[in-house]
Amino acid sequence: MNLKPFQRATVQRAVAALTDPVGSRRFLVADEVGLGKTLVAQGVIEALREQEGRQLRVFYVCSSLTIAHQNRDNILRCLSESLRKEAAVEVDRLTLIPTARVSERAPFLFYTLTPGTLPGSRRTGRVEERAFIWELLCSALSGLARCSTVEEALRNGVGAWDQHREDAAKLVQQADQRFARAVKRTLALRFDLAEGAHTSTLILRVRRWVQTEEGRKDLVHHVGRRRQRPSRELLSAARIPLREWRP
Predict the structure, then answer these.
(1) In Å, what is the CA distance from 29 to each residue of 9, 26, 38?
(2) Per-residue pLDDT band at 16 (split at 50, 70, 90)
(3) Which tens digits make up the pLDDT trace of 77-136?
(4) Tally of CB atoms within 10 A around 29
(5) DSSP class of 31
(6) pLDDT digit string (tens) for 20-73?
(7) Rounded CA separation 110/58 (Å)
(8) What beta strand segments (E) does the chain contain?
(9) Are 206 and 186 contacting, i.e. CB atoms less than 8 angstroms apart?
(10) pLDDT band per the 50, 70, 90 thresholds, residue 230
């Protein structure tokens, strides 16, 4: 990679900060427009990949997906044209990461996210995301599938819900069981219960939860919102080492 001396120095400092086991493992590049932040990002990705000696996963968080995709295309220019499409992961929700089909040929995988799709958002998410959450809940809480009020809260009036649910069920069957366990722990935390709370207790609490309009809204986004713990567990279950996840 043809970097200028100041860009190369930035890459070296960034990589040192991100790999320092006793440091913050964060680094901010605040250069002016046109000074090559994209080139620096490419250099950091390449250096980290070489250090790890394996495929790297890059999570790019931007204010909008339009800008994120534009910048993603620029960053991926460091790869050959045949690998760019394989490196770009189209899934843009943490909840749906386990559903993504990813390439093993690409030297790194590039995920694009926005603040609205991360834990903390009050949005209800896309229908496939809610269907996946519903099937995860059913997988975690045996017997929940009979609770139509809970399902209706996640359905949120969508007409083609059954098809989305069937597609999600197939994905959940293929997913690591840690996803279901992470969801169950998230619900226990929500209700201030012990992590090993009995399934019937959790189902009862969920049913009460969706009896109010505010509870129904909260359920839609809560599984992915409960701070960082469930998200980190989902990333771990997707075989993404937690030390790569630097929010």
Answers:
(1) 12, 10, 10
(2) very high
(3) 989 988 998 999 888 777 777 777 788 889 999 988 887 766 555 556 678 878 888 888
(4) 15
(5) P
(6) 988 888 899 988 888 889 899 999 999 998 888 888 889 888 888 888 888 899
(7) 5
(8) 56-61, 88-89, 108-113
(9) no
(10) very low
Tokens of 202: 């959790």
Nearest residue to 123 (alpha-carbon basis) of 17, 246, 225: 225
- According to DSSP, residue 227 is labeled S
CA distances from 234 to 7, 107, 180, 206, 223 (A): 35, 22, 9, 21, 11
Q: Alpha-carbon distance 230 to 238, whole Å?
A: 12
Tokens of 33: 């427009």
Query: What letters, b where the CB count within 10 A reaches 16 and e where it falls short, cover 143-182?
Result: ebeebeebbebbbeebeebeebbeebeebbeebeeebbbb
Q: What is the pLDDT of residue 184?
A: 81
